[in-house]
């Protein structure tokens, strides 16, 4: 397939990997991929197999489903159960457990929960059902926030009264700051988020290089993107540089997407603080609707419990999100907590580090690989 | 590094022990039916093993094959018997409709037992207000599909429910077929060394349906692959006979779920080569956009044949010489270790576990 297969060439992957091995010889390099989309690519394509063992990939907090605290999910379920409400959400959120079940359970109990692919689809449902209240569960980083902003502007322009947004948008930079300030962490560099950077551009990352002296390279989402990015970070390290570089130049512009940023600024403002699962409260790390958009703010329109719910005790999503432990090091990983019976959010979304690891990565570790002896069909036939 | 490896091994062994302990025990913890229970993946298994299997248990049912195989006193050949219910939405989609699907699906369940399909039943649940014109269209399409496949619809039933109690119409079909002498053994007979053959590109049906729902505004020419597979099976069995260990049609849950079922039941491991698996470019494109894996998407006109290594070449040639198997491919091999798991060698040269589908295939958001 054009524009995809070019980024999945296994010979090219092997030769870049050999170059990474040469540059990193004798060292152990820990890189964090901030974005959940990268975690997914890494496991789906078995990239850890292709990279040399000197490179250790740590999975960061960039899965928007995973960082949402349980209390917010309880609030969402409470809104969904409100009479006359059609509650719309991205598919990933359906199975995320709150303290009493998920939205999928709420749906089975009679709540009208529908999944949509875009907030504009939710607005369409509102137009089609003028006698019902339609709520959209807005989640995600700067990647999805612009589409929420555009939807709000359109709802305002069309004076659609039976539509509102339950806003849970978060911002990536404060989370990276929190991780860099965390004392229990040792990272050598970052694989920077591609889609978020498409919106915010490269400038917001400058502090990582300037103040923390860590290289960060913004990466695309195909296997070769990630392998090349790893090479670029390792090259910076080997040359003693710490800079913000852009591997994903075919999409990300240095200044970002000005129109998207404007739409966000017109409709949303920073919350003083917001709770992140596992990372705790982080100041100025999330967005809420501006006062002018109060008529479309579900938090003002509906009664929500608004309670803070402690994460399940056994769950170590927080440490996984900070990259302090690997998914498999969690006490309940693969035993009590599996994709069918998730305890923590990291096990729910396919982008969650634990789910990706459970589905794809379990047997990717070197010791296990040698035991398995998986050969491509052609070689297996000869054996 | 060495200490790390020991720790990794400990954890992997712990997870493996849990998997093994649960392998034949399915946990049904849910209090309500959710849509996941209908996805054909793990939740469906949990429901079957937690509710239906223990209540109805008997030696025939416990085989858990697509069709029951029945010994009839005084008859030399055995009968295959199966049933399936169709609730697809939308009722009409590119490449077919619910009626055609209801005929093909049941024929295919019989064909996978190595049977010659003979007779079908058809039950209709109709919603008050449903258009008679649409009903006629669907029934005509069923009649045509049955005629083309050489089976007769010999009995039926009709019920009408109040408006809002059914989504237009639901169809149930059951079927009876005659099992050829010396036919397919079944999934428990799969052995290390066997080859995995796939009759053609995967994912067409599921993606065609998903795009026909009009929520996505993606325009493609993808059409459902719905087709009766009994002539392809007959052709394959005529060529290699008992070299075929097991036949399965990868419907709900796709190739990933079907091969996991085989790996669990036969206690073997299956290793696939991603690049050998045929997928139409448009289906791949749609899956890339929606964040789906073509290997977990439903098919209605494809089969997986596990064959002994000796007959691999002949079996593949036989599939390819039939119109429904023209793009057939060898996609993997069966191994002994570790039992109950399916692996994929990825396009980029890595390896990963290919698990059963969990829940419905939901699109990723970023």
Oligomer: heterodimer
Largest sheet report of chain A: 5 strands, parallel
**Main β-sheet of chain B, in a few words?**
7 strands, mixed
The global form of chain B is: globular
Using only CA atoms, what is the Rg of chain B? 21 Å
What percentage of residues of chain A falls in helices of 4 or more residues?
25-40%
Shape, per Cα inertia axes of chain A: globular
**Order of strands across the widest beta sheet of chain A?**
2-1-7-8-9
- Average predicted confidence as pLDDT of chain B: 87
User: How far is it from the N-terminal to the C-terminal residue of chain B, by CA?
Assistant: 35 Å
As residue ranges, the low-confidence spans of chain A are 365-383
Question: Would you mind describing this structure in some detail?
Answer:
The complex is a heterodimer of chains A (383) and B (366). By secondary structure, chain A is of the alpha/beta class. Chain A contains 17 helices and 13 strands. Chain A has helices spanning 10-23, 36-44, 47-50, 70-81, 103-108, 119-128, 145-157, 172-181, 194-200, 206-210, 223-238, 258-267, 298-301, 317-322, 353-361, 366-372, 377-382, and strands spanning 29-35, 55-62, 85-89, 112-115, 133-140, 163-169, 189-192, 216-218, 244-246, 268-270, 273-276, 280-283, 287-289. In chain A, the strands form four sheets. A five-stranded parallel sheet of chain A has the order 2-1-7-8-9. Chain A has a four-stranded parallel sheet with strand order 4-3-5-6, sandwiched between helices. A two-stranded antiparallel sheet of chain A has the order 10-13. In chain A, strand 3, helix 5 (103-108) and strand 4 form a beta-alpha-beta unit. Helices cover 33% and strands 22% of the residues of chain B. Chain B has a seven-stranded mixed sheet with strand order 9-11-8-12-10-13-14, with helices on both faces. Chain B is an alpha+beta fold and 366 residues long. The longest helix of chain B has 21 residues, at 2-22.
């Amino acid at each position: 397939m054009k524009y995809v297969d070019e980024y999945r060439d296994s010979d090219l992957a092997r030769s870049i990997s050999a170059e990474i091995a040469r540059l990193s010889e004798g060292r152990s390099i820990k890189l964090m991929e901030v974005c959940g989309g990268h975690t997914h690519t890494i496991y789906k394509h078995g990239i850890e197999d292709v990279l040399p063992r000197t490179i250790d990939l740590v999975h960061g907090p960039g899965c928007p489903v995973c960082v949402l605290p349980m209390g917010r999910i309880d609030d969402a379920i409470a809104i969904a159960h409100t009479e006359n409400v059609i509650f719309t959400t991205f598919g990933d959120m359906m199975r995320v457990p709150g303290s009493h079940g998920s939205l999928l359970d709420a749906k089975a109990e009679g709540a009208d929960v529908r999944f949509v692919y875009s907030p504009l689809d939710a607005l369409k449902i509102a137009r089609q059902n003028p006698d019902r209240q339609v709520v959209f569960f807005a989640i995600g980083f700067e990647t999805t926030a612009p589409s929420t902003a555009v939807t709000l502007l359109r709802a305002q322009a069309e004076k659609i009264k039976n539509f509102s947004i339950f806003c849970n948008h978060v911002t990536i930079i404060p989370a990276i700051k929190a991780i860099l300030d965390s004392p229990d962490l040792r990272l050598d560099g970052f694989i920077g988020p591609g889609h978020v950077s498409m919106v915010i551009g490269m400038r917001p990352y400058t502090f990582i290089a300037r103040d923390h002296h860590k290289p960060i390279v913004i990466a695309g989402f195909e296997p070769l993107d990630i392998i090349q990015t790893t090479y670029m970070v390792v090259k910076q390290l080997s040359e003693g540089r710490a800079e913000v570089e852009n591997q994903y130049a075919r999409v990300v512009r240095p200044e970002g997407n000005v129109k998207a940023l404007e739409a966000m600024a017109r409709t949303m403002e920073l919350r003083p603080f917001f709770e992140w699962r596992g990372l705790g409260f982080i100041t100025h790390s999330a967005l809420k609707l501006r006062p002018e958009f109060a008529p479309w703010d579900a938090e003002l329109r509906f009664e929500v419990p608004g309670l803070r719910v402690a994460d399940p005790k056994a769950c170590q999503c927080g440490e996984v999100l900070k990259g302090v432990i690997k998914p498999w090091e969690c006490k309940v990983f693969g035993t009590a907590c599996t994709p069918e019976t998730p305890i923590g959010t990291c096990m729910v979304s396919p982008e969650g580090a634990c789910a990706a690891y459970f589905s794809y990565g379990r047997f990717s570790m070197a010791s296990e690989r040698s035991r398995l002896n998986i050969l491509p069909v052609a070689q297996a036939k000869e054996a | 590094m060495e200490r790390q490896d020991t720790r990794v091994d400990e954890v992997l062994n712990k997870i493996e022990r849990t998997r093994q302990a649960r392998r034949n025990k399915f946990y049904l913890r849910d209090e309500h039916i959710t849509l996941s229970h209908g996805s054909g993946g793990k939740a469906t298994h949990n429901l079957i093993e937690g509710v239906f299997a223990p209540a109805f248990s008997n030696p025939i049912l416990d085989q858990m094959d697509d069709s029951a195989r029945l010994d009839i006193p005084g008859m030399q050949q055995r009968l295959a018997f199966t049933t399936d219910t169709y609730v697809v939405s939308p009722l009409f989609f590119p490449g077919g409709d619910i009626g055609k699907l209801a005929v093909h699906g049941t024929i295919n369940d019989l064909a996978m037992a190595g049977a010659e399909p003979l007779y079908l039943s058809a039950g209709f649940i109709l919603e008050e207000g449903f258009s008679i014109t649409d009903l006629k269209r669907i029934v005509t399409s069923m009649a045509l599909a049955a005629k083309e496949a050489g089976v007769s619809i010999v009995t039926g039933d009709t019920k009408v429910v109040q408006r809002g109690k059914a989504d237009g119409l639901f169809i149930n079909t059951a079927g009876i077929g005659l099992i050829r002498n010396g036919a397919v053994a079944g999934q428990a007979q799969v052995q290390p060394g066997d080859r995995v053959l796939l009759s053609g590109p995967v994912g067409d049906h599921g993606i065609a349906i998903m795009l026909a729902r009009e929520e996505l505004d993606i325009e493609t020419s993808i059409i459902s692959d719905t087709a009766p597979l009994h002539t392809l099976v007959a052709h394959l069995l005529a060529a290699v006979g008992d070299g075929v260990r097991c036949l399965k049609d990868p419907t709900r849950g796709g190739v990933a779920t079907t091969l996991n079922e085989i790996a669990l039941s036969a206690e073997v491991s299956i290793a696939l080569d991603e690049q050998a698996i045929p997928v139409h470019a448009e289906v791949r494109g749609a899956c890339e956009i929606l964040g789906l894996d073509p290997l977990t998407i439903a098919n209605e006109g494809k089969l997986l044949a596990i064959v002994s290594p000796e007959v691999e070449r002949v079996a593949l040639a036989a599939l390819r010489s039939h119109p429904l198997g023209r793009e057939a491919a060898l996609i993997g091999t069966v191994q002994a270790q570790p039992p109950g798991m399916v692996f994929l060698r990825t396009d980029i040269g890595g390896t990963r576990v290919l698990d059963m589908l969990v829940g419905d295939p939901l699109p990723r958001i970023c």
